[in-house]
Design a protein that fits this description.
By secondary structure, the protein is mainly beta. 0% of the residues lie in helices and 52% in strands. It has strands spanning 4-7, 15-21, 26-31, 36-41, 46-51, 56-61, 68-73, 76-81, 91-98, 108-114, 120-125, 139-145, 148-156, 159-164, 170-175, 180-186, 193-201, 210-216, 222-227, 231-236, 241-247, 252-259, 265-271, 287-290. It is globular, with a radius of gyration of 17 Å. This is Regucalcin.
């Protein structure tokens, strides 16, 4: 099967946070700067969205529901109810808490994902003005579960990609401004992370762009979106070697996740922010990559 890259949505400003919900056979994602959450159903091609009242960093379904989601809204973690229909209002049903309230000018929540036990790991990024100019070391990484919100690390520039290894012993994490990928020892029972080390350095590997969202395949390899790099790279986290590069027809590639009935489709989000020049279509579109010859793993939903 040959590699095929298909545009599945019209351009967004800052498409991000793709999450495949196996039960609904649907992809959920966000447009952070247009304050919208999105649903795409590959079987029908239906693409719906609705708008909230602030930036939306991520969206993850609440386990056992089809219409409730945890989102990062500004600097707040909230549970919303949305029926997935076009323009239907999303109602906040629970406030879980706010973070970085002491940071001025204000941060915002960025990428987030559920760990193997359904806890949310999500982080913040520094104030950005103009676009592309982010205050460094102002963000933090947090964990959200039934016990509350815990800060895991601080002095983060842009909190981004998250993934956990097949053995549930390692957490991979990206602060985009470092242009490196971190690895922590991970305790699946407590959700604690420790012993930071770096497993990949874009600079040393002559890779352009910055690391953004990422996901893991069923072979244990990382797939990393490269913002300003027009591609997704596949990395062996044990050796730090690049195994494959998938070109994407957008400069600002933001995140990736596997989905589809067989988990053999790589969904890729992108942006069209005017950073150093206008980004013409299909920049900002969401893409569907098939024929990679690998499969991903089911996304975990939020459990609390």
């Amino acid at each position: 099967m040959s590699l095929t890259i298909k545009k599945i949505t019209e351009p967004l400003l800052l498409g991000e946070g793709p999450h495949w919900d196996d039960r609904q056979q649907a992809l959920f994602f966000v447009d952070i700067l247009e304050y919208t959450i999105h649903k795409y159903v590959p079987a029908t091609g239906a693409h719906t969205k609705t708008k909230l009242d602030g930036t939306v960093g991520f969206i993850v379904p609440v386990d056992g529901t089809t219409d409730q989601f945890i989102i990062g809204l500004g600097t707040r973690f909230v549970i919303i109810q949305w029926d997935g229909e076009e323009g239907t209002p999303a109602k906040i049903v629970q406030e879980l808490g706010a973070v970085d309230q002491d940071v001025v000018p204000e941060n915002r929540l960025n990428d987030g994902k559920a760990d193997p036990r359904g806890r949310i790991f999500a982080g913040t990024m520094g104030y950005e003005n103009p676009l592309g100019n982010v205050l460094p070391e102002k963000g933090s990484l947090y964990r959200v579960d039934k016990t509350g919100i815990q800060k895991l690390c601080s002095k983060i520039g842009i909190s981004n990609g998250l993934a956990w290894d097949l053995k549930k012993k390692a957490c991979y994490y990206t602060d985009s401004l470092e242009r490196k990928i971190r690895r922590y020892d991970y305790d699946v029972d407590t959700g604690e992370i420790s012993n930071l080390k770096y497993i990949f350095d874009l600079e040393k590997n002559n890779v352009s762009g910055i690391p953004d969202g990422m996901t893991l395949d069923s072979d244990g390899n990382l797939w990393v979106a490269l913002f300003n790099g027009s591609s997704v790279i596949k990395i062996d986290p044990e050796t730090g070697k690049i195994l494959q590069t998938v070109p994407i027809p957008a400069l600002q590639v933001t995140s990736v996740t596997f989905g589809g009935p067989k988990f053999d489709i790589l969904f890729v989000t992108s942006a069209r922010m005017n950073i150093g020049g206008a980004q013409e279509p299909p920049c900002g579109s969401t893409f569907m990559v098939t024929g990679l010859g690998v499969t991903g793993l089911p996304s975990t939903n939020f459990k609390y």
